[in-house]
Amino acid sequence: MEWYTADMRRSSKILLVLFFAGVFLASFNQLKESDSFYHLKVGQVIWETQSVPDRDIFSYTAPGSPWVTHEWLAELLLYVIYKLGGFGALIGFVALLATFTYWLILQTALRRGANIAVTLITAIFLAALTFELWIPRPQVFAFLCFGALLFFLEEFRRVRNPKFLLGVVGIIWFWANVHASVLLGLVILLLYVLFEALKLQWPGLGRGLPQKEVRQLAGGAGIAVLASLVNPNSYEIFFYRAAVEPAVQALQVLEWKSIFYFLPQREPILFLMLMVFSLAVILMGRWVSAGRRDVTLVAATLAVFILPILSIRHVGLWPIIAIPIVAVVLTEFGEHWLRRLNQRGLRWGLYIGLSLFLLVSIARIPGTYVRRDTLPVGAAEFVLKENLKGPILNLYNEGGYLIWKLWPKEKVFIDGRSEVYDAETITDLFRIVGRQRGWENVLLGKYHVNVAILPYRHPSLARDTVPLSFALEQKGFHLVYWDDAAMVLVRENIENRQFIEKFRLRIIHPFRDPRTIPEEERKAAGAEIQALLSRAPDSPSIQEYAKWFLTIP
Prior knowledge:
Blueprint lengths: L5 H21 L8 H15 L22 H39 L5 H12 L11 H21 L3 H16 L3 H20 L9 H18 L11 H12 L14 H23 L6 H16 L7 H16 L1 H6 L2 H21 L13 H9 L6 E2 L5 H8 L16 H11 L5 H8 L4 E5 L3 H16 L2 E6 L3 E6 L5 H7 L18 H14 L4 H11 L3
Parallel strand pairs: 1-2
Antiparallel strand pairs: 2-4, 3-4
Helix pairs in contact: 1-3, 1-14, 2-3, 2-16, 3-4, 3-5, 3-12, 4-12, 5-6, 5-7, 6-8, 7-8, 7-11, 10-11, 10-12, 11-12, 15-16, 17-18, 21-22
């Protein structure tokens, strides 16, 4: 392309540095989800025992239940990084994975003839809403594997060198050991084989590979399928979705719901609009335009387009396949206009745009590695420090972090491993949380719960947990701790009597306005606030509660 001047080529290195620095920093995300922590604990177990667990070891409600540990290698890698450098190294490692994945995406686009300016703009435009998904969970390896698979497949189609099929086989094997979404990789691979074969019969479907290369592609796909079975769970990983479906439906796990479920929230609407826009561009460039038709890419794109409609947890996959194709198509459509653009103006526009992207990414850098207002960090530390004994009642979202902090000393009621828990356990949880008939017999008689760690600040959870906390207090549980994320209640019995006498909060309460505390109780309330501040000194909500109390005339 003659319009792509030598001056622009010299600028490309600076542009790429700005872009990748922005991607790294935008993907440097806090640990704020509980599931990240049980993955770390699984990695620790694998590291220390040199074996992959296939039965539940973390809960007291489903001990010994079958468990498809399909993410074992990702969990091991994440734990090793944590062991070497702590949470900072772990977050930085994930950000590096994101940066490398976007390097693969850009390489896929540029080697197919996309203009670098168009590619960078397209990448930021389509990926901006998904950088927050790069958190220490095994799914980030799936993003990397998907980007690598598309890179190898497109390079094989471009240069027809069988060495790229070795990359396909290797990445499928790795994917099968880090995440069950390898099924998507196999589907994409088989779509490539199918439609490249169909092109031999119907050239109108687009320019395809010669027969020899189609056979090589088919052979590579066959070997890749066999390689995917070389994992501790063999073919069972292909049925992971079916295994978790009953629990997911019963628990109403949000990340498994369709993107339409989250409408009319702003971000899902924006992402859906980006998906539709980029799909329209791809169809115009690779289907409607007969001279550039490529049914292989259209089929693969449609397969990925469906995934967020089935489950919002798949939204991170869309930019990976869409960016290279959209960038190439827009380059083809806009080649005439690109030639007429002022090169200096284009270059400085990119400098400014990417610098703003970098500045926004810098502004997003977290001040701490672990969010204490979304995770029961303080509650778990309190339980450990004071040597509280379980069984512990917890909800789904908190289980992963409690596994990380308390296991093997204490086990959880439930956590994010949906496939482990049967219908009876989930029914029991809902009976307790909903205070349905006989709930106290399940709580105290069946599970002998001694401690409850409950979230109470998130609006969707508070509807159930706030009434539950009052019901527990009526059944002999006493509040002993609260902070920005959770409260701890302890059951009154002989073993806990001295503990309750020492730590019970008789007057102050997260649901009691300090302005309603009568004058005769203010001295005792002040002592309780000071005691609670000593247990949770960094809690803004406790500090705010103390401030309200002190300002009461």
